[in-house]
Write a structure and sequence with these properties.
six-stranded antiparallel β-sheet, paralog of FGE (formylglycine-generating enzyme), 444 residues, 22 strands, single chain
Length: 444
Amino acid sequence: MNTNKPRMIAACLSIGAASLAFAQASVNLSGATLTQDTVTRIVEVSYTLTGNTPVYVTLGIETNGVAIPVPVSVWGDVSTLGRPAVIAPGETAKKIYWQAKKDWPSNLTTQARAVVTAWFTNDPPASIAPYVVVDLSGGPTATNYPVRYSITAPALLDDTCKTTELWLRRIPAGSYTMGSPTNELGREVDQFETQHTVTLTKDFYIGVFETTQQQWYQVMGANPSFYTNVTYWATRPVEQVSWCKIRENANGSTLRANALTWPASDSVGEGSFMYALRQRTGLKFDLPTEAQWEYACRAGTTGAWNNGTTIVSTNTYSDANMTLLGRYRGNVLGDGQSTDRNCVTNLSTTLVGSFLPNAWGLYDMHGNVLEYCLDRISSTSRTSDLGALPVTDPRGVADVTSYRVFRGGGCASVASSCRSSYRLGISYNNQTHPRFGFRIAIQP
């Protein structure tokens, strides 16, 4: 991570003055002024950026010394998550505009502080970067994994992003329709895919790829996977990992007390994969919830597949659209259940990132390995899992006898079992299988 500190200036709405602090000779922020229209409440922040280094520039707002959520309704000479513009230095004053009335409608106080910060382009802030990157190169004995943020997506020609780094994509908060319409081909009635509105109130991060065997090894110092061909193992998805091993404990076979585990608690058990990541990064790593998974998978789409298409034939064993998106029974030789540990990638799981991504740049959301989620599916009354009523930030059922949820289908699944809305329940927390894997998330 770049060690240069970001450059910052501040202006107070009450007096329109600024205090300046800048130490780097190559870039300088100065001359900040601030005004606010008394009718529209549009805030104008003016500043000068000189030097020879283009930078990202962000705007923050504080009141009583406490930062409010990152302003969304901003434009001008500023970098944002949706528009991470690079601002070039120049003698002409730069201007940032903020529609305070839209972002902060219930707060009319003029006693607020605007903070303008310049960031070097090789070390952008989390507020504008779509990706977070964790450096695992220190291996299982490391006490700390460096974390950085990236404006650009991972370079697929370099396997680093799939082996000694973890790349996660920021997914914006929002609402969507979870489940499938009753006329969707291949719909699983007994899995209860009832359509309903889900609102996720906070941004979260989810893995660009399924977690690979090399990434698991870098954290845990061992590889439990079945498909370990020496040429391909590193970037194949890790499998034969249990829900317990992922987030409960080192032995991977026992569940902690219900009060300590999901959905009653967000905590993870010592010795688990998620525990190691939390300890070495300070970030809240976990599995995604079922609602987060489907939201991330769909990326704004409503059909069976996350490229905006749907199943095109009543023959749901294979499907031309699914064939473009992931490894499944329709494009694997045999049935995808090879018993040869040394088999090549066209006989079972394949290398992550081998198929087309969705609109958020996520790979293999359809097929390859079945992906664990945090939630449970009720073993006795699945109709209560996904009712028709709207829900906000759902955590799944609390029934301790219920099944764990898998999403996405796998290399041995038929096309209909890889749809965006498909749900599969497994009754054991400690069960492992060559087609069970997962995708990491960072919870808000």
